[in-house]
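Request:
You are asked to prepare a plain-text protein record giving the amino acid sequence and the backbone structure tokens, at your earliest convenience.
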Amino acid sequence: MMGIFTLASRNIRRNKRRTALTFAAITVGITAFMLSSTIISGIDETSLRNYLRSETAHAKIMDTNYFAERTDKPLTNLIYRYESIVSRASAGDSPRIRACARLKFAASVIRESDELFCSVTGIDPARDGSVFNILPTAEHGALNAQNALASNANRCLIGKKLAAALSVVPGDEITVNARTRYSANNADTFTVADVFFSDNPEYDSFGIVISLPDAMRLADTENGVSEIAAALPSRDDSIRALLERIRPVLPSSAEVYGWRTQLADVLLFFTIRKVMQRVILVLLLLVAVAGVTNTMLMAVFERTKEIGTLAAMGMKQIDIVRLFIAEGMLIGIVGSTIAIVITFIPVMLMSVVGIPVFGTDVLANVPVSSRLYGHIEWWYYPGAIVIGTAVSVAATLYPSMKAASLNIAAVLRGK
């Protein structure tokens, strides 16, 4: 067997131009696999991370009817007496769970002659920063933002893009106009305490964050909140421990929804996108197969006398097939390795440094508003070599069978 690989290696080195073209076909296909997988996985992973840190947390407690209408941010089907749920959820250290309550509703923000749509989020300043990233991403620090909201002095935080659209800076006043739970109009003036940038376009472009008491007063919800969010030790942890902990105080109409349930539509979109990526990748690999097959057929036609001589010397048809398959394997391994070397630095840069996308509409509909990071799985590298080798071997099957089926006598007579 080693003799076949030695002979295959020599055959590959004989025609350097053809070999370079064959390597290029495999290298391009595997390079496309590595870069596209890194970028697509990076979009999914960055989006998911930002969803968890700014919107869904690891789990949420909501009224079942509110959950069905949550995208509209209604002021109906709220959770009351939420303090006991938050206290029980946060009690204990095994596992350590952090919880906070939020009230959300749609409104409009007025600054001089400008009026824009906004999304108001009422938070508990003492707890929210341990679950979500709004306070930690405030420009002047989490502590400053927390103290400003805790003062109950009509202070607010505003998303960076919304602040730019309204031309406001910390210290300016804005008026928030909202419909109350009873469908009456209510408005209040708030002083901008700070600007935040959460990497979630929904918050950064439309978000105004105020204290929970201010939000309850503005929306007239008395003691009602939209949801109670919980951060578990890991996103892969089960919500069972949280459910068991809060069961005695959980309203009968409420449920605990894990992040996978909340993001079911988003995860389905991610799956569809990965399927489409794989379809495109298969098409690229088919192009690579065509290129390798073409060059290997050229090799067969150029080496007919050599193949006939080997057959006349006793080499069996199966050994001729193995010879060409060995050449295909070597081409696949070397071409894949070249692709890995070429993509290693770009992939690492995308994973560590990221791609700046702030100020563009490239990813306008996903929660990635400043920098996109690539995501690389450990199996990409061995997977690239396996895929490249399999593609190259598959491309040599027909040429190898063509070579094995040559008529030895006719070949030796030069026909």
Remarks:
- Residues 16-56 form the longest helix (41 residues).
- The chain is about 55% helix and 15% strand.
